[in-house]
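Throughout our pipeline, every protein is held as a single compact record rather than as scattered files. Such a record has a labelled line for the sequence and another for the backbone structure tokens. The remainder of this section carries one protein's record, kept here as part of the documentation:
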Amino acid sequence: MSTSFDDALTFLFAQAHAQFGNTVKGYWFYWFYESEHCPGCGRLVDKLRYKGKDTLSLNAFIYRRRGILIGYLLCAQCARAIMRAAQQQPGRQTERHAVIEDTLSRAYEAHMNSLDG
């Protein structure tokens, strides 16, 4: 995993831990462990132009069942769709969020099960 991703996830984890305390026990980066595919649609993760620069869409959510902050990357199409939805209805989850969280929760459980042998 690149240092910049690790640094960003460490920062996100520190923020989540400061806000939620011991409810957040650790973090896991989906892209590094499981797939280069977008958890929202299955396309390959790609860069997007944001404010005139090429960037990747790094995101995270807390998987409450295990207390894990799951970090992930989105493809440009899903990232743009979520940003548009956030402008239209700030603070509201979209159906795509539900798909992403379901995909990532199942992937994390599969990852943990694979460690059990």
